Amino acid sequence: MPLLKMASVSILLSLLLMACGQGESNTASGNRLGILHLGNGTDPQELDPHIVTGVPEHNILTALLEGLVLKDPSTLEPIPGVATRWEISADGMRYRFYLRDDARWSNGDPVTAQDFAWSWWRALQPALGNQYAYMLFAIKNAEAYFRQELTDFSAVGINVVDDHTLEVELANPTPYFLQLLDHYSYFPLHRATIEKFGPPDQRGSLWTRPGNFVGNGPFSLTEWQLFKRVIVEKNPHYWDAENVSLNAIHFYPTENITTEERMFRSGQLHRTATVPIDKLAVYRREHPELLHTYPYLGNYFYRINTEMPHLSDKRVRRALAMSIDRDAIVQQVTKGDELPAYTFTPPDTLGYTAPDGFTYDPDRARALMAEAGYPGGEDFPVTELLFNTSEGHHKIAVAIQQMWYKELGIKVNLHNQDWKVFLNSVNGGNYGIARAGWIGDYVDPNTFLDMWITDGGNNRTGWSSARFDQLILEEAPRAETREQRYRLMREAEALLLEDMPIIPIHIYTSKSLVNPAVKGLEPNILDYTLYKNLSLDNLSLDKKSAAELPD
Length: 551
Fold this sequence. Notes:
The chain has helices spanning 9-15, 26-33, 55-64, 113-123, 142-146, 177-180, 191-196, 257-265, 277-286, 314-322, 326-334, 362-371, 391-408, 419-427, 446-449, 466-478, 482-499, and strands at 35-39, 69-71, 78-80, 83-88, 94-99, 158-162, 165-169, 219-225, 229-234, 248-252, 291-304, 339-340, 383-388, 412-417, 433-439, 502-513, 518-519, 535-536. By secondary structure, the chain is of the alpha+beta class. Strands 12-16-11-15-13-14 form a six-stranded mixed beta sheet.
């Protein structure tokens, strides 16, 4: 894909204005000092890669930690990280990784193969409650160990050959295994630091705090002020430090996207996490060089708590899905080139496309509600729709609330919660219907399907299907060809959409505003950023020549 388009000089000048007339703006000083200022959506839940599940946490953790491999942001192909190279057996069952001799933790300790083995052991401790534990199930006996069907970790397919050689044996050939290794659930952790602050399987210990956190990534954690900012600074012990241009990154919680856009206009941010819906057309028309929109491998959807009596009937759940006019939502509400979603896996994910699992059909939806005992919405309990605080989520929820009332005659109350409270509510099953979004962790349909296995950490709907589990955990991994694997996955997705514990709404696009001083960003369907590749132009321009941005 082409490099990002440069802004005109007048727009560039406006981005370097003094913030609110009170001294040098963040972007101006950042360009001069090599400090990148990013909107991050919300305050991180935690900075423990074995506890978190969200994009805001991912953004920070990929600056602080590094796995065996990285991704080339232009192609998303695996490239060397801590491992300089790897060998794969002819049957695809065994991987041998050769770690670089100069890999160091931020305290100067060497990064070893044992660090990875110990960290993956920790990720599989049931008491830790790692919702991403299933990501490691590609490894031989990892799932059995996690479920305590075996208790000897030496039976898991992880073998430390020596300090700089790690061998991994898989349960089945896994064509996307290298991509998994760049997910934070596979990142190494500094054992001595974690054990200093408590047992390895203790949640919420102080090892993740500034001054305590020891990482192996290009940056080190230096500040975390709740609801204000997280600061990471260049790690001098990082193996590739001489090629890291940025001196620091400041991550800002920006749940109010209108405020975030104002921060961008006033020079407080180099890049936003998203763009207000009502500003998209303005930027497209007046300043398209600042607006970056690209296809995004993700699905915006609603979870349904299938353990609630009135939501336990799949006829009700299908009626809810079939009474949502997705074309109206993407054309009149989101307005960001999103696609209506009638499957969970985005179309053409590495050549995989599932048939639509349902249609927009209000008449059929009303019939299903009547069959379930709620004709015209009669006797259907008032239901809560939960979403994390965001103007965009609220607008979508209002539109769907009105559609459900118009088409089904049911009443839905809207309830928003801050990110951390929202996560606790969903994780604890304290919701009826809850907003959700899923961004692929790697480019393969499996990243959208294996989360719905029984008791999967990211399932959280109460839904379970033995046949679905069999297809995703047993049959698809053993398929001899991609065509066979995809056929089995389509069968599994059809089961998911027939029972409808989730309601797909739209396929994402990534949307952000980017200061033209930022160099090295490469558009890709994962919105994946390799911070070590980023740099900032140090531009000193006359603020009197500045043009105004959209107000």
